[in-house]
Write a structure and sequence with these properties.
mainly alpha, about 75% helix, Farnesyl Diphosphate Synthase
């Protein structure tokens, strides 16, 4: 299974692998700039525990349809990845998460104060990289994305254990926390490549659809996956009071379920939360949520329909399939 996933990611990244390697080297260079060993270790731990580098790959792929300055695109892709890394550091700190993808988080190893400072440093560094592109439209969009990410975190904090929230509330939070950066990844690549406006808008919309599908799958896997696959306990979001799409869909189907009624009345009993996790995990709410993710996947494919036949397009098509079929 791992080999299959690795091959799929390799196929997706293949047309831009050389540029993606340059992004990784820039991240390594950022860590090595610090003379204090502790700071270098901090940055390296943060930079290389961030997953499959899908967001910078999206930037590079979106820029591949038109001839452009490769240096500028690599700079933008590095900025996108740094912004993602910074958001993960802050997310883990706010959520008091001890593990991410099987590795200790910055906050669990060095404490919350260090994690917040490191997250701020990486946020600021990402901004300096995007400024180096010299494109005001991209810089503005990037700044808006930082605002979106913060709004998403605030929304999640203030909606904890709030059973009155709607699917529309969830969708807006999902856009802010996840899909906004996917949009920026694809739109910025297209803009910096000099693509026509209709192509820029199509790739921006593609990023939105894929980002929404990606987060919904994350929320499904929180119930369907194993602790080994997730790198955290199954049902962790609900156990912490975060109501995701499977939870909201289950609540719609079972408004009179006794455990849910206690939770809706303000209960936060761990036994009730664990019971709710099991009920949702074994319910039709999972297939309902998968259907919603599949709708976003289908719309993402539609956005690619007007693009020329290109190897990068095939990578984007494969990525679209991957996000709704992955297990981690």
């Amino acid at each position: 299974m791992v080999d299959t996933v690795d091959r799929r990611i390799q196929y997706i990244q293949e047309p831009v692998q050389e540029q993606l390697d340059q992004v990784v080297e820039r991240l390594r260079g950022l860590a090595s700039q610090h003379h204090a060993p502790s700071q270098s270790e901090l940055l390296e731990s943060a930079a290389f525990g961030a997953g499959k580098k899908l967001r910078p790959a999206l930037t590079l792929l979106a820029a591949s349809f038109y001839p452009c300055d490769p240096e500028n695109i690599v700079t933008m892709a590095t900025s996108v990845e740094l912004l993602h890394i910074a958001s993960l550091i802050h997310d883990d700190t706010v959520d008091r998460s001890s593990m991410r993808r099987g590795r200790a988080t910055v906050s669990s190893r060095w404490g919350g104060k260090v994690a917040v400072l490191l997250g701020d440093y990486v946020f600021a560094t990402s901004a300096t990289y995007v400024c180096d592109t010299g494109n005001v439209r991209v810089i503005r969009r990037f700044s808006e994305t930082i605002m979106d990410l913060a709004k998403g975190e605030l929304s999640e904090h203030f909606s904890t254990h709030d059973w009155n929230q709607t699917r529309e509330d969830y969708e807006l939070r999902t856009y802010n926390k996840t899909a906004s950066l996917f949009c920026t990844s694809t739109e910025s690549g297209a803009v910096l490549s000099g693509a026509p406006e209709e192509v820029c808008q199509a790739l921006k919309s593609y990023g939105y659809q894929v980002g929404m599908a990606f987060q919904i799958m994350d929320d499904i896997l929180d119930f369907q996956g194993t602790e080994e696959e997730l790198g955290k306990p199954v049902g962790n979001d609900l156990l912490q009071g975060t109501l995701t799409l499977p939870v909201l869909l289950f609540a719609e189907r079972h408004p009179d379920e006794l455990v849910l009624r206690r939770l809706k009345e303000g209960g936060t009993d761990v036994a009730d939360l664990q019971k709710a996790v099991e009920m949702i995990r074994n319910s039709a709410a999972i297939s309902d949520a998968l259907a919603v993710a599949d709708e976003y996947r289908s719309r993402a494919f539609e956005m690619l329909g007007g693009l020329e036949d290109h190897r990068a397009r095939r990578s984007l098509e494969e990525l679209t399939e991957y996000v709704t079929q992955r297990r981690s």
